[in-house]
Structure formats: structure tokens, C-alpha cells
Amino acid sequence: MAYQRSALMQERLAENRQRILASARQLVARGGFRAASINAVAEVSGLSTGAIYRYFPSKSALFIEVLSSAVRHECDILLAIVDGDGSAGERLRAAVESFARRALQGPHLAYAFIAEPADPEVEAARILCRREFSDVFKRVLRQGIASGEFPKQSVDVSAACVVGAFTEALVRPTEHSARRRQDKALVGAIVDFCERAVTGTA
Amino acid sequence: MAYQRSALMQERLAENRQRILASARQLVARGGFRAASINAVAEVSGLSTGAIYRYFPSKSALFIEVLSSAVRHECDILLAIVDGDGSAGERLRAAVESFARRALQGPHLAYAFIAEPADPEVEAARILCRREFSDVFKRVLRQGIASGEFPKQSVDVSAACVVGAFTEALVRPTEHSARRRQDKALVGAIVDFCERAVTGTA
Amino acid sequence: MAYQRSALMQERLAENRQRILASARQLVARGGFRAASINAVAEVSGLSTGAIYRYFPSKSALFIEVLSSAVRHECDILLAIVDGDGSAGERLRAAVESFARRALQGPHLAYAFIAEPADPEVEAARILCRREFSDVFKRVLRQGIASGEFPKQSVDVSAACVVGAFTEALVRPTEHSARRRQDKALVGAIVDFCERAVTGTA
Amino acid sequence: MAYQRSALMQERLAENRQRILASARQLVARGGFRAASINAVAEVSGLSTGAIYRYFPSKSALFIEVLSSAVRHECDILLAIVDGDGSAGERLRAAVESFARRALQGPHLAYAFIAEPADPEVEAARILCRREFSDVFKRVLRQGIASGEFPKQSVDVSAACVVGAFTEALVRPTEHSARRRQDKALVGAIVDFCERAVTGTA
DNA sequence: CATGAATGAGAATTCATTCAT
DNA sequence: TATGAATGAATTCTCATTCAT
């Protein structure tokens, strides 16, 4: 009986933890870090402020995890594409397109990835996250250069540039109007840009 | 006499205004938006907190102007390059290089340009600023496409991508070590990336 | 069987109660009242926070008992000395010396005895504890005065003064350096002081 | 005109600072450190919470000043007595009596002097304060020993003991009943105790 | 009975903005 | 007009106590 209770409890604990993370992510996505106070996170997640501190030792720690888990999830998807089939150019295009499509659905989270944070601790985490992102692109860049498909270039710089390019192009004033058409064209243009930048061919 | 005093006054008012803007810019560049409280701005500019509110109706308004005036200054420099002599590709390279060199000397201001602001009002301004930046690059892109030097592409998207690419590549953990050599290589790699991206040639 | 289980139960209950008291005492001795939160007590005693409230109705009640049991233990030792053999002066010296030696080994508990408590309830208990302490010394004072060994004096006041004198002299910034020598001299000086104070002879 | 305004302002600032200190002292005296929250200090002193932080950088800093200013004031009075006329014994008696009389009028402040503080910073200050107190008594002890009026003894220890003795004797459950008579007797007994302790004569 | 997750009031501290002088 | 002291709401974090399991 004690065991079962424990199992149920653990499930609920894990659920609460996820709910807190989801609430924090949601708040950041909607209103930026400013809108994501501990009180707001508590309210959205249906817990008390004190409960948040049972799951995370500080506000910084919570948002570091929000950031890094979002990035990890994104990176996993991109890695599967980048390590998949096709030429280096095809895989690069697919990865950029995949990222861009998702970013357009939750546009404000892209902000958070490049936002100046309130706290030096979060700042450090943010830089690591950006690096993780560009690491994914370094893989395909290296492969493309090795196979002669891409011209010689600084892998580090090009990877950062690629990340910066589509990030910037995706950041827009939050217009909640219908924009499917434009979105498709936007994604296409971004993908083209990145391919040209990396391959050096139109 | 009343007229002269008024003239002197106006001069001093304009001077104060500039001093406030410069102080705010300096504080943001050194410590980010967090370090730029109204009190800090007042202290650095040698005025009182109350005086700040004579010149700017709110903190948001002040930082909106800090942002836009910094961007305007940068844009003026870039415009001179972009509207100067040489092929479209040469001018694009020169503009990117010029921006990158300056950014590497005061690296933290680059953060501010892409920083998540405290206030929705500033947020809106920030997006306009980014647009102003990319407007400069749109000019040279249009010219290059018109002359057949660049392949057909979305001018809007490519301009944003170029801005994002070098911005991201320039943002690094503030390493205060000697890095002249690396800086030169970094700028070169960025410029190459952007040229390839836009011209489609290695 | 029900009886036996009950007996075993009662034993375990008593054991838990003692463990809680010991844990609380330990925490106060090491880090003061600040460090002695209910959660910390629960952790050290190997019980849950809720369990603490099975044995003590409130935090105040727990620490009141910590205080009074520590004092009772100390008083028992002192009483054995005070009611032992020798002249009143010898017994007073022995009691003071005994207390001082023990206090120097666990110096922080002396703080707790004179510490300002978090709670008026504990405050009241603390005063009673001090009174209990001085009651021990009143015994030997009365005896010494009756036998003519000590001059006439207010037994109440002198007892309190004696307690205060050695308490104060024993409270020092926690220097963890070797100090055996100094300790011996310190104890000697304290004992001398108290003897002079009570006997009126050098 | 600017000068006069400044003068008035400075006066008011100094007044506020004193009011804050007085409010904090009052709150500690009445209800201990626990009752002296920043909000309470603000309310009693008729200022806002934020205003407190214009005068003191932190709660700790405020209470360190409360403590040390109270001690300094007390020490000044005692020093005047100790460095005055009369034999060493007479001056010691006078100093103890003077302290005791005042302490009996604001009995809880004596607690604060020996209270375990919330903050390590305040703790450090408290220890220094106690030392300052006993330093005053060291003076008269040294003089008395040098002149042969007092027997040889550890000046450090005896001074601490004297402070501890009267401090302890003065600490009582806060009985707000009339007690003038008892007070007089109490002070007398304390003074006698200390004299005997130091002189070794009844 | 035991557990320990949850509560929520309360603490210290910050800072954009106002307004008496 | 300039000053800068004062405001007070908001923020992060703590911890004694409760209660569903």
C-alpha cells in the first residue's frame, strides 16, 4: 500500500513539475520574461508560490530549465533531420524549414532564446543554449565541406550566422492575423537564403 | 535679453537631453537594461531623477529614443557605404564589415539591440529599429538584383537574415582577453557568409 | 498481544520523542535558533515534518522543552555538586568550574540559553530556565550565609549575578583555534571572580 | 534660497534618520528583534518602507546602528563616571549603579544587547558592542589593581563577568507593576555583588 | 499513525514615478 | 525649472502548519 501510494505520488509530482515548466514556458512565450513572475507561474500551474520552490530552488533555476528543455527538444528534432538521409544541402534545408515552421507557431519563444535575461545565471545558460543550436548546424556544415558539396568556410561562424539569420527573420511584431500564405513564402525565402549562404550557389 | 536667455536655455536643454541619452546608452552598453535604472541615468548624466522626467515622459520613452538614436547613427554610417561607389557586392561586404568592426569594440550594445525589453512599448520600438537596419540592406539588395549581380530573392527576408546572421555571430560571452587576430578572422568569415548568402557564389 | 504491541509502541514513541529533542538541541547548539527549522529537525531526527507535530503541538512547545530539558540536565549535575561535600565556598567553586568546562566544549548552547527567542512563549520559558539555574546557586549561597562563611547579601540577586557573570565570560566569538591553555586560565579567573563576589575575600 | 532650502532639508533628513533609529530602538525594546520588521519601523516612524532604504542600506545596517548607538551612548555616560573622581571602588559602584538604574527603565533593551540576532552581520556587531562595554570596566579595574585597591585578577575576565552579572540580574519577566522599592534594593544588591567580586572585601 | 507535499501569509528589497520645496 | 526625498506596489523567497493519502 505504501508502495502504491508512493507510485501515485511520484506520478503526481512529476506531473506538477511538468505543469510548472509548461506554465513558465507559456508565460514566457506570451509575454516574455517580464510576465513570468513566480506568482504568475504559480497561478497558471494551479499551485501555490511556495510549492514552486519545492520543485525548483530559485526562479533562475526554473527558467534555466525551461530554456534548456525547450532547446533540447528542438535540438533532438533537428538532429534527427541533420543525421538523416539526403545530401548535406538537402538536410540543411530540411532542418531550417522544420525549425522555421515550428517557430512561426509559437513566435514569442524565439525571443526568449535570444532575450537578455534578468539574471546572470540565466544569461550563462542562454549562451550555452545558443551554442547547442549552432552545434547541430555545425555537423551538417562539416559534412558538406568534407564532401566538397559546400565551399570552404568557418564552420563556427557559418553555423552561428545560420542560426542568427533564421531567428531574426522569424521575429516579427506579434500579428495574430491570418498569415498562412506569407508564412509559407517566408519559410521558403529563409531556406533559400541559408542554402545560398552555405553552398555559394543560387 | 529675454531672447538671449531663451536661446541659451534652449541650448542647455538640448545639451541635457543629449547627456541623458548618452548616459542611458552607456549604461545599457555596459550592464544591459537591468543596470539602466532611472536613478543610474540621473547620476551618470549629472542631473536629478526628477529632471529626467522633464525631458522624457517615461522610462520607456527614454529607452525607445536611446535605441532609435543609436540605430539611426549606425544606419547613417551604413547608408553612406551602401550608397557609395563600387558594385553591390562590394558595398554589401563593406557595410557588414563596418558594422561588425564597430560592434566588436562595444560588444554589449549588440545585446541591447536584440534584448527583450522590460516594456511592450519598448518592444514595439525595438522591432521598428531592426526593420530600419534591414531597410539599409534592402537598398543594396534591390540594386544588386536589378543589375543582375545577385540572384532573385525575397529582399525583405534576405535583409533580415543578413542582419540576424552578423548579429548572432557577433554576440559572444564577453571575453576580455586579447582577440585582435580572431576578430579579424571572425569579421572575414561573417562577410564571406553574407556575400555567399546574397550572391549565391562562393 | 495487543498489550505487548502497545508496550513496544510506547517505547518507540518515547524513543522518537527523545530523538526529536536531541536533534533540535543539536541544531540550536550548532547554528542557533535560526538554523533550527522544523524541517531541519525532521531531517536530522529521521522523521517527517508531520510526525514532529504528533509529539509537539508547535515549534514553540518543542523548543521550550529543548531548553528546559537541557537546563534540567545541567541543573541535575550542578545540584549533585552543590549538595555534596565540602565547605560552601568549595562547592560553589566546583559548580561554577563544572559548568564552565562543559560550556567551553559546546559553546553555542550557552548562546541559546540567553538568546532572544522567536516567540513570546519561548521567551517566558527561557526566563524560567534562568531562574532554575540561579535556584541551584541560591542553595549554596543560603548555606554559606547561614554558616557565616559568606557575608550577608541578597541571595536572589547574587545567584543571578553569578549565573550572568560566568555566562557572559563564556560567550565569545567562536574561535576554533586551539585554546586549551587559555580555557584553563579562563575557567580559573571566572571561578575566582565568583568566589570573591560571594565570599568577599580575595 | 537654494542654500536655505538645503539647510531645511538637511535638518529634516537628520530628523527622519533619528526618527527611524528611535522607532527601531523602540520596537526592539518592546518586542525584541522579531517585532522590528522594516514595515513596522516604517509605520512607527511615519515613513514608507522604501524611505527606510534611503537612510540605511539594509535591515542589518539599521539594527547595527541601533545597537552601536545605544551602546555608545551608554558607554559615554559610564566613561564619564569611570574617569571621574573618587577611589576605584567608588567609581565602579557608581558606574554599575548608573547602568542598572537606566536599564530598569527600559528593561527589554538589555535583552537586545545579548540577543541572538537574525543575521551574522548583526551578530558580529553585537560582539563588538559587548566588548566595548567591558572595555569601560577594564579601565577602572586596571586602576584599582595598580593602586593596590583591588587584588590581582584577570582584567579581561572580571570585566566580562561584571557586565554579565548586572545584565543577568536586570533581566526579568516584564512585570509592569509598580516596583520602585524593589528596584532600589535590586540595584543595591547588584552593586554590592560587583564590589565584593572585584575588591574581595565584604 | 506516518508521510511529506502543499499552503499562504509575511519578510526584505527594488524602482518607476510624483510632488513639495 | 530643478531637485531629490518619498511613495508603495511588486518581486523573490521562507517556513510553520495542515491534511489527503
TrEMBL record, chains A, B, C, D:
Pfam families given in the database record: TetR_C_24, TetR_N
Q: PROSITE patterns, per this entry?
A: HTH_TETR_1 (PS01081), HTH_TETR_2 (PS50977)
Q: Which residues bind DNA?
A: 37-56
Positions of the HTH tetR-type domain: 14-74
Q: Which InterPro entries match?
A: DNA-bd_HTH_TetR-type_CS (IPR023772), Homeodomain-like_sf (IPR009057), HTH-type_TetR-like_transc_reg (IPR050109), HTH_TetR (IPR001647), KstR2_TetR_C (IPR041490), Tet_transcr_reg_TetR-rel_C_sf (IPR036271)
Query: Residue span of the signal peptide, if any?
Result: none
Q: Which residues cross the membrane?
A: none
One GO MF term, please? DNA-binding transcription factor activity
Which UniProt keywords are listed?
Answer: DNA-binding
PANTHER family for this protein: HTH-TYPE TRANSCRIPTIONAL REGULATOR PKSA (PTHR30055:SF226), HTH-TYPE TRANSCRIPTIONAL REGULATOR RUTR (PTHR30055)
What is the name attached to this protein's record?
TetR/AcrR family transcriptional regulator
